Amino acid sequence: MEVQTENKMGTMPVNRLLVNISLPMVISMLVQALYNIVDSIFVAQIDEYALTAVSLAFPLQNFMIAVAAGTGVGVNALLSKRLGEKRMEEVDKAANNSVFLAACSYLVFLILGIFGSKVYYQVQTDIPEMIDYGQQYLLICTTCSFGMFGQFCFERLLQSTGRTVCTMITQMTGALLNLIFDPILIFGLFGFPRMGIAGAAAATVFGQIVAMFFALYYNQRKNKEVRLSLARMRPDAGTIKQVYEVAVPSILMQSIGSVMTFFMNKILLGFTSTAAAVFGVYFKLQSFIFMPVFGMNNGLIPIVAYNFGAGYKQRIVQAVKSSMLAAVAIMLAGLLVAELIPEQLLLLFNASEQMLEIGAPALRILSLSYLFAGVSIVASGVFQGLGKSVYSLVLSVIRQLFVLIPIAYLLSLTGILNWVWLAFPVAETVTIVVAAFYLRKVKKNLDAMIGDRK
Question: pTM to 2 decimals?
């Protein structure tokens, strides 16, 4: 294979590069967040049990996403670093092994979905309607999750080489198909059968499968730095080990969110099922604020990894500063909206009087955590790009397990629901202190890790 020229991640002005890489992902993730919100709005029209069932499904769905996205982060970091080092054979190994790992991940969740969907709900609730709704929903989401795993895999390969416009198209295509087919399949429009909550799941997996094929097409046609073929998809132990050195902490970090949500739902169901529904609505709404930051962060990771591999320290520092400023601005906008119009946001989900009474103060309290969350998210991306994913894992463990759940449980013993929500801003405050410590440590050692050439 011929020698590659310098990738734009090592030559383009940093702020322009950050916009160039991140903006398509920000747009596509905003569309995805909009879909998540509208999806719950449609489900809420069935009844509150259906909305709560979808909320209770979130931990397992998030775990699937954690495995897919975490593996993608490992591939992304390794592949971008190898591009920076001009080791093209290693680039191909990382890309082809990522497809093999995606297939293995799907098989695990296929089995889990077939045999564990009903048990998963029975552990959380004894309400028959909720168990029935949940089993229908989860069975489809897990057994057809090959689309989701394939989509994540192929999109991360495109992101690793800076082709984020292609990922924007694939993600937007999947999200828009979800959006279109949600009401059609839920309510049985245009001659389609009325599927109820199963229709929401079917629309989701359909969009993912189409997006997967689009992403595969773009890799084959547009991604000249990556060569995918069945012959090259033989598992390579060394490559897989390097992928998972970054991926495992990332998977654990994102999986912690599933554990947190599971236990928070258990705490909230001790008050009322409406409290759990409010928590689910909050997660849908916050995704509209967090997704743009995550999109920018996904763009930051390959920039940091590439320039780390190429030895360009100042480009890393500049990219991190710009990302943090943008993240803080986005989070402050979200805080302002949540504080001013919580009732209007809840009414989008066909909120009852009880949901409004519980939800309005909940959104105002929960959104206080936005003050510091943006910096923590960007810090996690920096650590992943530099191969220090353990630092990111520590941040997530502190935020969502060691601090959040114990405080939420202790506050629940007061019998005052509003106090439980306070656990979130408290946990975020502790997390940013730890993030600042790690960022100073990384910055101090950056000169020793790489020699700056640009």
Answer: 0.71
